[in-house]
């Protein structure tokens, strides 16, 4: 994605210093996507996200998962 310090500051709303290279899918940004390498192929991908409750205690967080046309999808959430 070739983000620089200025671009990251827009997403993070604060100055960011990167100390290591990480995969784009592990940026802990709320959206996630995966690109198929070829038509009609199977693959497994893991997206890690951390949720910090800054609201009222015992809040409920919901996600919405959509599969592309003609795709099947399996999702597993861990507490």
TrEMBL record:
UniProt cross-references to Pfam families, sorted A to Z: fn3_6
Domain Subtilisin-like protease fibronectin type-III: 26-76
Lineage of origin: Eukaryota, Viridiplantae, Streptophyta, Embryophyta, Tracheophyta
Source species of the chain: Brassica cretica (Mustard)
Official protein name in the record: Subtilisin-like protease fibronectin type-III domain-containing protein
